Amino acid sequence: MEDNFEPIILKDKSRLQEIYDLRVSAYENSPKSEFVNRQIFPNGLSDFLDKRDKTLHWIIEDKNKIIASARIAFCNDLEDLKVDVPDSLDNYKIPKSRPFAYYSRLIVHHEYRKFGFVNQLDKARVDFLQNQKEFSFALAWATSDRHKALENFNFKNLGNFNYNWGGSKSLIQSMFLLTLNN
């Protein structure tokens, strides 16, 4: 059977390790390799949000191998984001309503980067969020190379912060807000 390269929601969470390994492999083959590589993350890149029941992972496969993924974690508390943001979130105009969506961890295998999978995964997640009644907004972080893509999906830049990659290094990123019209 030929893969159609359409994003689908991962149903089998026993495959999460494949996503964790993909994250490291993809970053090792990118300008961000100093932040994420096998030396820093020998068991793959993951956090506590990945395995939660209220986290969804979209994947794209080629011959039953995950070649791209992205997630949305549904959160009730900004403290859930402390894994990535050591800075205070009090300085940003974040809506008070809860729960909210954390739009994160988009990654594409380096050999598949020119196929438009980033846009497909963004569109699949935004379409999903626009059809949810439970959430009024989503937060996302991005380095400058992703700003335009997020803005094309109506995310608004709220400002910069120091992003913790989970290793010993951090990087300035921008926080984005997507207001949902449910």
Quick recap:
This protein is 20% helix and 30% strand. With 182 residues, it is of the alpha+beta class. The longest helix is centred in the C-terminal third of the chain and has 14 residues, at 117-130.
Keywords:
182 residues; alpha+beta; seven-stranded mixed sheet; 3 helices
Q: What's the end-to-end separation, in Å?
A: 37 Å
Categorize the overall geometry: globular
Relative strand content? 25-35%
Fraction in helix = 10-25%
Number of strands: 7
Indicate the structural class. alpha+beta
Uncertain segments of ≥5 residues (pLDDT<50)? none
Oligomer: single chain
Largest sheet: 7 strands, mixed
> Helical stretch count?
3
Across the major sheet, the strand order is 1-2-3-4-5-7-6
What integer is the average pLDDT? 90
H-E string: EHEEEHEHEE
Radius of gyration, whole Å: 16 Å
Provide structural commentary.
This protein is α+β, with helices and mostly antiparallel strands and 182 residues long. It has helices at 16-28, 117-130, 144-152, and strands at 8-9, 55-62, 65-75, 100-108, 137-142, 156-164, 170-179. The protein has a 7-stranded mixed sheet with strand order 1-2-3-4-5-7-6. Strand 4 (100-108), helix 2 (117-130) and strand 5 form a beta-alpha-beta unit. It is globular.
